[in-house]
């Protein structure tokens, strides 16, 4: 297996472009496919692209805050000690790879934004403590846990169809999460992945000669010093814990109110709110907090510049009908046995071009739900097949890897050689589960 891993890494290092170039190429590919497979003209495709370009602005800001607030929280003294405690259980490179995969999967199953950040931050902590561990594989393993997010508490598709008044209620009614997230077939797939993925990641460890390590000292952040002499009134406020404690406690009070009212219902805004105000409290003073923010924001450039291009791609895919054409092609070759499998595969392909669970469901749902009813298939399982497909190809989609890569200080080509193997293995597990459970 090691020769294949080595070959995969060499191919990715040589041929996988920077994520910005990847999205530019993807834009041109979708533009061409729209001209070939739909009746859209070149002027219309340009129009669809431009009109969709800014559709993800709110989401882009949320992702920037996921990165920044997560980094700020993790760089606080208290959280560093907590991550250090977890990292102390890793006694060898192999155990580090297994532990980071499991922790990332647990965090991603709870909430996808939480998982993206925690996995990468924990991987960095392990890299500081465990000698001779391949840093690329460590980050790839942390990112691999993201594959279970759409089958967990923050899965946008199962949560959508469980909500009164969802767009397809007239067609399928309201479907409880007991039939989707907590259905036996879904829980079995998740459980198997919790066993298979850590083992797979462990088997992907390169030979000693090809192991890429990092100098642990590169991860040491210098906290802002607290000044004590000749302070102006403004400087006294910047170095005072009082303001941080007051505003931080207000944030905690709101979180307590939210969880009492809504239960443990995490969404991206609440995750960011949690990270932000814990970061304010844990850093102690405004000066230390702002120094951490300034350091964190350096890694957000990829998100800021690339997400609008993905929004443009999504605009072309949906407005031209190209996403519908792709979905219908797979439905046409399905029967009552293979339907869930092909729903999963089609969703995985569409996910490359429409990297949004909610957006993808809006496009694919009419075709998939109609086909499910025609074939007398389970609507709930159909929805989860699409959800799994959406999560699956994220493993090789730079769009979702950007926050983790920014935290890690790596490029997409550094981890994708490993992610390809994880994609194949997880795809087999999910496919078998959808076919036979």
Automatic annotation (TrEMBL):
Query: Which InterPro entries has this protein been placed in?
Result: SCFA_transpt_AtoE
Question: Where does the chain cross the membrane?
Answer: 20-40, 52-74, 94-123, 135-161, 181-201, 241-259, 265-282, 303-325, 337-354, 415-436
- Pfam families linked: SCFA_trans (PF02667)
| Source organism, top-level taxon | Bacteria
Keywords from the UniProt entry: Membrane, Transmembrane, Transmembrane helix
**What protein name applies here?**
Short-chain fatty acid transporter
**Organism of derivation:** Rossellomorea oryzaecorticis
